[in-house]
Amino acid sequence: MTWFFETLGNYFQFPFVRYALIVGVLVALCSSLLGVTLVLKRFSFIGDGLSHVAFGAMAIASATKIAVSQLFNAIASWIPGAAGWIDSYEMVLTLVITILAAVLLLRPGQNRKIKGDAAVAMLSVGALALGYLILNLFPTSGNLSGDVCSTLFGSTSILTLTSSEVWISLILSVVVVVVFVLFYHKIFAVTFDENFAKATGIRADFYNLLVAVIVAVVIVLAMNLVGSLLISALVIFPALSAMRVFKSFKSVTIASAVISVASAIIGILISILVEKGTPVGSTIVAVDILVFIGFFIAGKIGGRRK
Amino acid sequence: MSQLICENLTLGYEGHAILQDLSFSVEPGDYLCIVGENGSGKTTLMRTILGLIPPMKGQVLTGDGLKQTEIGYLPQQTEVQRDFPASVFEVVLSGCQNRCGLRPFYRKEEKEIAAENIRILGLEGMEKRCYRELSGGQQQRVLLARALSATKKMLLLDEPVTGLDPKATAEMYRCIKELNEQGGITIVMITHDLSAALQYASHILHIGAHVFFGTKEEYLESSARVEFGKEGEES
Fold first, then answer.
1. Is the pLDDT at B225 greater than 70, yes or no?
2. Around Cβ A273, how many Cβ atoms within 10 Å?
3. Measured distance CA(B130)–CA(B123) in Å, rounded
4. Nearest Cα to A210, choosing from A218, A220, A221?
5. What is the pLDDT of residues B129-149, one digit of tens each?
6. pLDDT for A303
7. Cβ of A247 and B128 within 8 Å?
8. Which CATH number fits domain A2-298: 3.20.20.60, 1.10.3470.10, 1.20.1250.20, 2.60.120.1440?
9. What angle do CA B52, B180, A195 make, to 5 degrees?
């Protein structure tokens, strides 16, 4: 046991380990909040599609980074203290593009030519293909497959966060949590029964859009932790686990937040402490899966579900 | 003064009219049943009354201090709700949303309204039960309690007994009748069940090839009923 804490203590001297844990916990918290809504509204695929869009956006961002940073540095030399913010250029651009995609997918109006899941599928595979193409055409380092792997599975990016990225993650997480708490009852009403909500004067289309925008923010946040392919797991597993056992919307929401944060902490610690190191993202998702199996069995034994 | 007036409504989707030039009005305390064959536009009419879709022509007016968003709506159950983790109290309380406006949290009086409606519908002691674990009849009463939380004056019910067994059906009709007679709440109900309509309603709106609107007694003498009855026998 002393070995455990000593090793941990050693690692915590490094700021990047502390950053990883802070951002990891925040991302896990945010991603779990909307899980129930996404699962129940059959919106899971929108989260999945948006995460692929985020991959494409990340590719565009890294391809244009050098040109933009030259431009930025030329301007930023006039503004004191601005120089460091170019570090977060990739994250900000990815955020903007992903939010735009979310708005595009869920914009109100019945008369769209291409409907629902087909549009999501198009956008999602299209973004994947173009993203990979761009990364090949404008390679930013000698190790292309390493770059792609890290964007898709987030292998090391959580450990290489810059301090401006940590700040942006912090701010975005707080915004997500505050918005969720403020609109919690409205999101519940719209999730449970959209028609009833509309009939009683709730602007359901607006809240659907709000949910999609929050999901877009969560995805960009979570890319650093688990990579764009595994984000859906972070959103869906804690909610599904909680739904096996708990019976009210409130308790399910709180439980999935706790499950998600706990799994993230355990996952990050395992990947740090295991001798050769395991990839952070997949370790967290593996913990999530184990928790789900546990809750599934607990739900069966509790057995009051019909 | 009428609570609900529909004037020269033309209803339909995407430029295709299903129903033309429909006019009727609902007075406080009425029990109106809307009957008609499948595809005659009953649900479209209901969605138009609720403001979920705009009418192609004509207008829906509310009066007697009733706003369109203060009509209590009992929709047909959706797929999503069958597996929904929510307690009875959470569902009923969500009916109070239209009193909140942009305020993010419920006040004490709204929680009291929800508790009162749970009591009225005989669901006491089930507040913490999970919605998805209830029987069909109980679920329907929970949704009725939610509709009641959204209104003080008028309930709009869309086929409220679909999928219920005969006992739960009778219980549901009894609840609705009590709300109408003792609570003084106006009822507008879509139904397939003509015998129930004739048993409970004060007014009948029959839509389809022949449109009829009037009291139950007038309906019994009219020809529209004969046609509906015939078609019912054939099918």
1. no
2. 14
3. 12
4. A218
5. 999 888 888 898 999 999 999
6. 64
7. yes
8. 1.10.3470.10
9. 20
C-alpha separations of A166 from A69, A182, A291, A295 in Å: 19, 24, 28, 33
Beta strand spans in chain B (E):
4-13, 16-26, 31-35, 57-62, 71-74, 154-158, 186-190, 203-206, 212-215
Q: Is B50 helix (H, G, I), strand (E, B) or coil?
A: coil
B104 and chain A in contact, CB less than 8 A: yes
CB-nearest to A246 from B80, B85, B90 is B85
**Do A232 and A288 meet the contact criterion of CB atoms below 8 Å apart?**
no
Q: What does the domain layout of chain A look like in residue ranges? A: 2-298
Query: For A184, which residue in chain B has the nearest alpha carbon?
Result: B104
B15 CB within 8 Å of a chain A CB? no
Torsions phi, psi of B204, nearest 5? -125, 135
> How far is Cα B204 from Cα B34, in angstroms, rounded to an integer?
6
Token pair 């106006």 in the structure block, residue:
B186
* Pairwise CA distance, residues A124 & A49, whole Å: 5
pTM score: 0.85
Residue A96 structure tokens: 């903007």
Cα–Cα dist B32/A132, whole Å: 62
Residue A98: half-sphere exposure toward Cβ, Cα within 13 Å:
34
Q: Does A16 touch chain B (CB under 8 A)?
A: no
Restricting to B residues 138-167, those with a Cβ less than 8 Å away from any Cβ of A are: 146-147, 150
pLDDT in tens, A206-258: 888 888 889 899 988 888 788 888 888 888 999 999 998 998 999 999 999 99
Q: Do B69 and A201 touch (CB under 8 A)?
A: yes
The encoded tokens of residue A103 equal 């708005």
| pLDDT of the residue at B234 | 41
For residue B138, which amino acid is it? Q
> Which among A224, A292, A181 is positioned nearest to A28, based on CA atoms?
A224
Candidates B29, B27, B35; CA nearest to B4 is B27
Q: A295 and chain B: CB distance < 8 Å anywhere? A: no
Q: Is A197 on the interface with B (CB under 8 A)?
A: yes
CA dihedral in degrees (A113, A47, A163, A280; nearest 10)? Answer: -140
Phi, psi of A155 (to 5 degrees): -50, -50
Which residues are CB-contacts of B110 (< 8 A; sequence separation ≥ 6)? B93, B96, B99, B100, B149
Phi then psi for B101, rounded to 5 degrees?
60, -130
Specify whether the CB–CB gap between A242 and A295 falls below 8 A.
yes
All residue ranges of chain A with pLDDT < 50 are: 110-112, 305-306
Rounded CA separation A267/A272 (Å): 9
3-state secondary structure of A129: helix
